[in-house]
Amino acid sequence: MSLRPLLVLGLLSTTQIAFSQQVSHNIKGTVTDNQSKEQLIGAVVSIPELKRNTVAKLDGTFSLDRIPAGTYHIRCSYMGYVAVDTVVTVNGNLTVNLPLKSTVATLGDVVVVGKSNGVTSESEAAAKASEKNAFNVVNIISAKAIQLSPDITVANVMQRVSGVTIERSSNGDGRYAVIRGMDQRYNNTLINGIKIPSPDNKSRFVPLDIFPAELVERIEVNKTLTPNMEGDAVGGTVNMVMKNAPEKLYVNASAATGFSQNVLENGFDYYPVSAIRKSSPYQQNGPGYIATPADFTRDNLNYTHKSAPANAMGTLSVGNRFFNNRLGIMLGGSYQNIYKAYNSIFIPATFQEGGELYIKHAYQRDYSSHLTRTGVNAKIDFNINPKHKISLYSVMADLKDAQARLTTDSLMPYPRTKPGTGQVWQFGRSKYQHQNIFSNSLQGNHTIVDNRLKLDWSAVYSKATSEIPDWAEYEYDGGFYTDPSTPNDPPYKHPDVTQNMHRTWWKNSDRDLAGYLNLHYTNKAWNIPYTVTAGGMYRDKHRDNKYDNYELRPVPNTDGSKQLWTDIYHFNWTVFNPKGSPGEANNYRANERITAGFLMLKFKVSNLETVAGVRAENTDQDFDTDVPVTQAAKSGTISYMDVLPSVNFKYELNKQSNLRLSYYAAISRPSFFEVVPYNYSGDEFDEAGNPNLLHTTSNNIDIRYELFPRSNEQLLVGAFYKSIQNPIEYGFEFTGTSNNTAYMPLNFGNATNYGFELVYEKYIGNFGIRANYTYIHSQITATKRTSVRKDGVLQQVYLNETRPLQGQADHIANAALLYKNGKLGLDMQLAWQYTGKRIALVSPYYGFDYWQKPMNIFDFSAEKRFARHFAVFAKVQNLLNARPEMYINKTTINDVAVPFQDPSSGKTLAQRDQYGQNYILGLRFILNK
């Protein structure tokens, strides 16, 4: 046998052996909590011998590819869990499931898990667990979800919750939450479960755009009530839970900048806020003072156009525990300095006798708004011993909005066919508003008898303030005209004539002193565990409202003609009412004392958990105004008692699913402004307050099925029904004087509101979908004014009109496409929000309500982590430049085509806003030892 065949055979054999050793295999599996079986997203899985590692995906799975045959260690670690190290032999594709044991002890019925996101309760898994374990129907948004979302204020975060729409401010940001079609008057706002006052000068509801989003640990939207919750929440409650002290050092800091697209394109109109006089002449000098022109500055109406200024934002949260974990401290702060520019077309509907719609004016408005938003929170808790704990919590939210508005108002009637020919009004308006909310709570938790008898209490001081000093507006009129004798000549410029103007000061405060005391007794009866809770609350509220208005009139020229306009500085004015307006009903003081008590029983039989009880609330109000003593209802008192039963059933179908059935009774109190006897004489009708206004009551039923297949996944399907008695709406009421009527807040019989909700969240690998849909139908009947022709004569009549509740959209939907790659440290989100048509403004005239068109808004956000503790993030709001539009379901009777209108639509455009996109780019640092 020759040597060559042997060499060839040996080479082939060696190649085959080497090839067999290079055959690779795959290892896959799932990382879970060994007790709850929940997937642990982001857990690190590694093979030390090969220096290979990966992380668990959004569905808890992991995969290691191209692993040669052999024996290896597989190690898995996850913050808050005991690391595992197991040995496997790889000779083919392998599945390895890794259950981890939590390092956190179980305390009673509460198990704290999922610390990978820093503070435990900030994680999305913790939010889902809280929804599942809650006594009532609730939706929760975690701090982690907020951090990764496109939103920077609590108000904008709220639009992601099922069944919630937001009322937007003039700058396009969300301001108020409408829960399940119930206007903001029917909801309340809490911080750490404590109700807070409102800085609004006319209402009770709290503007949520005052709160920076990253201050909160989570946002809870409670859609049903339990007896220990305050009862003035027909729609629901928004509870902002602020950050608590962590178990170890925790630091979360960020800095960002950005631009508004409209500011980039059009610049920004600036006026010096420092020029504003904070107090009116009357407020500064007292009664009897005669104001002179020198008491009013002009500098705040002198606008300078600037190129695009950059936005700036920063946050910092620092927390730790000391003295063997007995003392916990968490400090947080947020600052946002934002410039926005936006524009609007406003075409008010003019009611014509005969019930017809006529367009006379079209306003083109350009806004510039400088927003500075500041939030600070501090939480200190101290464990005196294992049975006694006290905590002190303070939060401050502050919003300053310096807004400039430049308006061109053009007449629309014949013979005008487009803006530019005919009379034109020019307006400049400066409005500076400063709102502040401060809340301070001292709380205690005490175990009295062997974990059976417990006591908790809270002492609260809260205050909300708002001021709009020197709200100023100028006006001058001019335009372009044609000479009928020479119709072919170009229009000539009519001289601009200076007109009357107003200066207004608003200032109000709302102060709460409150105390809460609850006693809990836990035991067993017939082997059934139960807890009885009895508690009470007392709140003393004082509201102080100040208003002052001055009218400034240009001084006529010596020949009696009006002064011509050149700029804000070059004309003379006189003060028409030099003593101001101290006798206005807007100057009032009001007090409210609420005394409440409740009894609540919680017990569980087999898989059925029941929380039932009753709450009683007594409301005692008084008010006093500065109107003359001869005017009716200059002062008054109001008192009533409400008994509010509720019951919440939760049946545990299995470890992953619940079935809920709930009933609760609730109320809604009128605002103080609505019950004071204000009177305002308008051009078309009079407005008035209503001291006889009743509060609203309701009965509410909910049913919901819940499925939580994984720690970060859910399916929620529910329905609700609300029967509302004495809802508060605005309508006409006879004043008792001849046939005179006034437009005022009134109670209109009964209303209904019902619908269903669907929430779905699912993850496959690195991708996820988060979606919700809500259908709502409501109905209310109120009186409206119109005109009809009888026997050839037009007569004013008042008809009942049935419509949805103001702010209620028939369809609401949210969807977000998520991508998360733990190995790359990358999170991305494309979010879509849809709001169906809804009544944006209820008109006093029959068929003249302002409807908002259906609206689609897209937002984008992304975050990339690097160098262990750092991340860079980006947010784009209103990606496709959605433009809100309002319309009236009537066509105009104008003789000629009207700009901006489409006669074939059967509708009349009333308003169109353009906010543009907003861009944010920032850097984040997170340390969690």
Describe this structure in words.
The chain has 929 residues and is mostly beta strands. The protein folds into three domains: 24-102, Immunoglobulin-like; 115-242, Beta Complex (Ferric Hydroxamate Uptake Protein, Chain A, domain 1); 253-928, Maltoporin, Chain A (Beta Barrel), CATH 2.40.170.20. Helices cover 6% and strands 58% of the residues. The protein contains seven helices and 53 strands. The strands form eight sheets. The protein has a 22-stranded antiparallel beta barrel. Strands 1, 4, 6, 8 and 9 form a five-stranded mixed beta sheet that branches. A hairpin with a 2-residue loop joins strand 24 (361-385) and strand 25 (388-411). The longest helix has 19 residues, at 3-21. The protein is globular. The N and C termini lie far apart (72 Å).
